[in-house]
Amino acid sequence: MLNIVVLLNHNDGEDIIRSVKKLTGFGSVYKIIVVDNGSTDASLTEIKKFKSSKLLIVENKENLGFGRGCNVGIKLALALGADNVANLNPDLDYSFDFIKPLSQSGIDIVAPVLKTKQNGKYVYDFGGKINWFLGRAYHLVSSKAKGTTFNTQPDLGPQRSEDSSRECDYASGGAILVKRKVFDEIGFFDERFFIYYEDADFSIRAKKAGFSVGVDKDVVIEHLLEEVKVTHNRVKINNNLISNFKFIVKWVPWYFKPIAMLYLLWLWS
Questions:
Q1: CA gap 158, 244 in Å, rounded
Q2: 18: enclosing H helix or E strand
Q3: Which tens digit of pLDDT belongs to each residue from 229-246?
Q4: What pTM, to 2 d.p., does this model score?
Q5: Residue 47 to residue 61: CA distance in whole angstroms
Q6: What is the structure's pLDDT at 226?
Q7: What is the DSSP letter of 67?
Q8: Residues 6 or more apart from 144 whose CB is under 8 A from it?
Q9: 199 Cβ neighbours under 8 A, 6+ residues apart
């Protein structure tokens, strides 16, 4: 079974170098495809210095956005015969080979539990949910690695303790492993989403086609951000809201659309 990793680089500096070096040591990984999305820092130059038969580099001349940039790498991975494609962010903890257990999970689109720091304490992300009333995506976060009580709604109901996976509405595009048959059936990330909501859209399309989407709660990976904070970057906020608008138009039921649009306008103001 061939597992190929796709890493999207856009000025990711030391993170992309560290992740490539670590991934080359993963026995479960056949190839690592770095897609450079028009980086202007020295990261691409440094990656080219790294010699490994596992490493392939694709250069985009400009920033194509998350979905479109990842699609370049995913299509190459499939052309190389990948059975599974892992789409990963450079700023994850690559201290152990987590690709192997994810590839053996039996879930068509599977994410690990992501461990991040918020307000000085670690929390655990168990995948994404959609608030269809407001047309917004959010994450199920727990203070426990094996948590069943979340500090965001809704209640998912009882979960068998022996079940190693938890179904979610969508899996985050920055840390997912996808079986080849999913791409063969539904295609790739919708490139109309420049950044944000492309992962939610992809997961919804997959579930409608009958594929499973979930989190393997036995695989916990730290997301090596300094600390998760509410962004005040206007460009990021605008990109999120633009993609949110496209998501509402595409997916929110007509009877909820007016409410979702009014809420979006309130967020934009």
A1: 31
A2: helix 13-23
A3: 555 678 889 999 999 999
A4: 0.91
A5: 16
A6: 60
A7: H
A8: 124
A9: 128, 170, 171, 172, 173, 174, 176, 189
Q: How far apart are CA 200 and CA 72, in angstroms?
A: 19
| Cβ neighbours for 238, distance < 8 A, ≥ 6 positions apart | none
How far apart (Å, rounded) are the C-alpha atoms in residues 42 and 71? Answer: 23
Residue with tokens 């659309």: 257
Strands (E), 164-236: 165-167, 175-179, 213-222
Unique residue bearing structure tokens 């989190």:
215
Q: Residue 207: which H helix or E strand, with range? A: helix 198-208
Structure tokens at 56: 């392939």
Asked if residue 140 lies in contact with residue 129, where contact means CB atoms within 8 angstroms, the answer is yes
Q: 164 in helix, strand or coil? A: coil
DSSP 3-state assignment of 159?
A: coil
Helix or strand or coil: residue 230?
coil
Q: Looking up tokens 């997961």, which residue turns up?
A: 203
